[in-house]
Fold this protein.
Amino acid sequence: MVAKGYNQIEGLDYFDTYSPVAKLTTVRLVIALSSIHNWHLHQLDANNAFLHGELQEDVYMLVPPSVKTDKQNQVCKLQKSMYGLKQASRKWYERLTSTLLAHNYLQAASDHSLFVKKTSSSFTILLVYVDDIILAGNSLHEFTHNKSVLDSLFKIMDLGQLKYFLGIEVAHSKSGISLCQRNYCLDLLDDSGTIGSKPVSTPSDSSIKPNLDSSPLYDDVPAYRRLVGILLYLNTTRPDITFLTQQLSQFLSKPTQAHHHAALRVLKYLKGCPGKGLFFPRNTSLTLQGFLDADWAGCLDTRKSISGQCFFLGSSLISWRTKKQITVSRSSSEAEYRALTSATCELQWILYLLRDLHVSCSKLPVLYCDNQGVIHIASNPVFYERPKHT
């Protein structure tokens, strides 16, 4: 039975709506730390998670047709949430949070879906993604205790060691932990009809940049949007297609035949390496390094620059991003400096996340930039008066 949530009125039947979704950078960071410290990684799944929330609002619904009643015009008042309600995910998250806080877990300020419990003999991390839960830590006894507590309240399904999470395949070995989306990629190739296509060695042609060209419009716009959306989620473990996916996502309203051909080339590239992904080695140091760059006026239509950044924890790639800048830069130094600003914000957030996880780096974090003008501006606060474009 599902409620007709589309009939609810905001401010009357519900107020806030959100789902407890952990950031994928947080997921990769926790797995990378688990590989370095040889922590245990387990996965839990909450059965019918949205049915466990307790409602504070007065929500009424019509009597289901399968329920026989003698009186006419009767309604049901819901005491607990159910699927279909706008606030169902929020209520599930509220009850889960209160349960964890009551059992001495601390909620991370950097990511509210992350909970940490530290004692004299154990360290446990609990990460929530809607109704999927990751447990990481050094004590299996604490894992067993957590599973019994959560199962008594929410009917938790214990899936054992983390092997498959949100379409991500997790493989454990003595040398480290690897992540890939091979099955997800093969399903994409099968659904798009390119499973038998000839693979190519690069995701894009370096001589062609997607732009608002004059080629004929692509007739199946929903199919193009669906394809780009799938590629965006594939970026979870495939940083090699992130740049082109960012380029193709700019033309969701009016894609052309050229844009569709560029998307098909990405699929042909994936055909040649469907199992490529990330590897988090165990023998690596706890150092945080970031790399950034900017393509000055890289967008042919708006002349805006494109920023790119990536961050490594030791040898483990945990975060990357490609995004068009919001303003037009008048010089390459200005474009690089904006990229440096964005990368600094991401670096600071990762440091907050590491602090919430009680992890300290062995060395100070470092950001690498190849623009001398930007390096001088960042290191000398007075230098900004000299460049002509800043």
